[in-house]
Amino acid sequence: MKSQIISLGILSLAISVFAESKMVLVKGGTFTMGSPATERQRQLDEKQHQVTLGDFYVDAYEVQQKDYEKITGKNPSTFKGGNLPVQNVTYYDAIEFCNVKSRAEGLQEAYKVSRGESGKTRDITVTWNRSANGYRLLTEAEWEYANRAGTTTVFSTGKWNRVEDANYYGSYPYLIEENYMHHTNKNVVPGSVIDEPVAVNSYKPNAFGLYNMHGNVSEWVFDYYGEYNEAEKQNPTGPRIGIYRVNRGGAYNDFGKHLRSAYRSATNPLDSDQNLGFRIARNADNTKGAANSIATFETKFNSEINAISIPKNPKILVAYFSYSGNTQSAAEYISKQMKKKYGDGNVDLVEIEMAKPYRGGIYEVTQKDLNSDARPPLKTKIKDMSKYDVVLLGYPTWWASIPMPVFTFLESYDFKGKTVASFSSHGGTRYGDSVSDLNKKLQKSYVGFPFEFYYSGGRDLNSRVDNWLKRNGL
Asked: Phi first, then psi: what are they for 255, rounded to 5°?
């Protein structure tokens, strides 16, 4: 299939051949990355700073299932459809796609992937040949620049998001958290929920001609997650060492706040979820020289975190916060299974209890704490957190995040060197971005694969829990 390369610099068009992609030439420039301190629902990792980028090509669309299947022979997506975005891809799946597609078109591969000698699946080094002409992922800075398309507002569509603009969990638009019980902002307009991805050419493109930069599936970018390096002002590539990789843009079941142009999500690169997809990019000719002054860029999994392992006879803490009992039931089953395998003396079950428990309707009682980023005091005290090798953390997903009392719990103890895995109940939003919030909090732990279940979990909850425990090496 032939397609156009569209130059957006001075309203000019150039025709070239790229197989099964609609590659758009984005002219580089200097922009302010991150969000202002006045932006509501922003996070502290969005510090504003100036970045200068060279030109680059980017696909107008998220990678489609028909293209992914043609290149790899596989289609891991939950919702099937040739022109739907591919889902359930790990970071390394996206890297592999780029390399295989490059080889198929006679281009130079951008990435070299090598596994370490430790034998651990996470011990992987990715080396990027920055001068290669093959396909690659966008850097985090390129993604935000492409998303904003010259705008400085919360979204590329303006100060607010609507279901007419993007595919997300439309009943929770931007700032619904501040307007759910007492709706005072007329710009906060709840809408319908599609609850699945849509065709990659749906909705109106942004000013650069790019579709679904907000919503649909969250898109892997190249960078490890970490604080912005403000000294790296030209074509930044993120940290060389890290744990989690960044994905951007939010997905079909994310809240409006997670679609903000500056929002950053941190995810285990080995995780595959139906929220996760990607889009591809390529160098422009003029980025082979000065703009790519570093010929190669190598990233390695954090060696300190990589050294974390689960011993044969681990000490396990099953800690949970529960409001209606759904999370408690799951926690009790998990504790039972762990005691059966490792012995009663090796497993503790602890409820995370508030000093002043929430009373009344879930939305009203939690809204104030959420909006003020409160840390409610806890009644629960862990005598010796240091003795545990593994922490299995349960909570209900509220407002697409971790409940504020669980934040208190996370900030009350040292989780360094531990393996942590979360399980969460929800009413339809799955994880929300609670796993990303957990990853950002536990930068010195290894956060394993998460598990989610709808309300009480249904008849197959126990078997799904068993599979989750096994996946995490338990």
From this structure: -75, 165
281 with 145: CB under 8 angstroms? no
Indicate whether this model's pTM tops 0.90.
Answer: yes
- CA distances in angstroms from 51 to 30, 124, 233, 295, 395, listed in the order given: 5, 29, 5, 19, 38
What residues does 262 pair with on adjacent strands? Answer: none
Quickly tell me which residue has 């903000």 as its tokens.
260
Rounded CA separation 446/472 (Å): 11
307 Cβ neighbours under 8 A, 6+ residues apart:
none
Residues 283 and 131: beta-carbon distance below 8 Å: yes
Segment holding 66, helix H or strand E: helix 65-72
Structure tokens that stand for 402 in this block: 């971790």
Checking DSSP bridges between strand 419-426 and strand 451-454, what pairing results, if any?
Answer: parallel
162 residue type, one letter: R
CA distance 175 to 314: 43
Instruction: Please report, as a single letter, which amino acid is at residue 161.
Output: N
Other Cβ atoms less than 10 A from the Cβ of 129: the count is 17
**Amino acid letter at 102?**
S
Q: How far apart are CA 374 and CA 73, in angstroms?
A: 48
Are 339 and 317 contacting, i.e. CB atoms less than 8 angstroms apart? Answer: no
Contact in structure between 393 and 423 (CB atoms under 8 Å): yes
Cα–Cα nearest to 282, from 14, 3, 54: 54
Q: What are phi and psi of 202, to 5 degrees?
A: -80, 155
Identify whether the C-beta of residue 382 lies closer than 8 Å to the C-beta of residue 413. yes
Burial (CB < 10 A; 0-12, 13-18, 19+), residue 356, is exposed
Rounded Cα gap, residues 133 and 130, in angstroms: 8
DSSP 290: G
Write out the DSSP string of 388-433. -SEEEEEEE-BTTB--HHHHHHHHHS--TT-EEEEEEEESSSTTTT
Task: Report, as an integer, the average pLDDT of 66-92.
Answer: 97
pLDDT digits (tens, 9 = 90+) for 341-400: 999 999 999 999 999 999 877 777 788 888 889 999 999 999 999 999 999 999 999 998
